[in-house]
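Appendix B. One record, verbatim.
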Amino acid sequence: METLDRLSDFISRVASDERLKPTHVALYVALCHSWIANHFQKSYSVSRRQMMRLSRIQSKSTYHKAISELVDMGYISYHPSYHPKEGSKITLLN
């Protein structure tokens, strides 16, 4: 049930948050998909390549800008990895 609650809360926030653009929404949906695939762990690893593919973001700079803005707006916590084989850590915030 937590999954549905989280997605429902996000949809409600998106409807009222004029700062969010389609790129943010697409990336957050990709992050939710990854969260589900990781069995709803509080923090989980993601790869930039996979998130860009799932969210249809073409540019690395656009991806990093959207991640940074989601952090600044309080939607996620992000800890970059800088290691080619290890993913960055993501936590979806309420």
